[in-house]
Specification:
This protein has helices at about 10-20, 25-35, 35-50, 65-95. The protein is mainly α and about 100 residues long. It folds into two domains: about 1-55; about 60-100. It starts with 8 loop residues before the first helix and ends with a helix.
Length: about 100
């Protein structure tokens, strides 16, 4: 059984860059770096889903402030989803009980 290896972000970026720039076969790249094809696909997806690399850095903003802001935005998004589910749940209960 292969032992799992832990690659740092720069190594993952190097692998994905090689895939995109050289347009090599992903299985050959996986063999070359001894990583799974699914891992490479996941790293590529994460790269394209991340918008923060294109965002401008705020002056004076520390990493912890950015993390706090990110978490606050995620909480707002989750709160919105929860409130929609609660409204839908109440509407369904009223419909089942005959209360329109």
């Amino acid at each position: 059984m292969k032992q799992r290896q832990h690659l740092n972000s720069s190594k993952k970026m190097e692998i994905v860059r090689e895939l995109l720039e050289n347009q090599q076969n992903i299985s050959k790249i996986g063999e070359k770096y001894n990583v799974g094809v699914q891992d490479i696909y996941r790293w590529k997806k994460q790269l394209f889903e991340s918008t923060e690399i294109f965002e401008r850095k705020k002056r004076g903003g520390s990493e912890s402030e950015r993390k706090i802001n990110d978490l606050e935005e995620r909480l707002k998004s989750k709160d919105s989803v929860i409130s929609e589910l609660v409204v839908d749940n109440i509407a369904l209960k009223k419909k089942l009980n005959g209360d329109h």
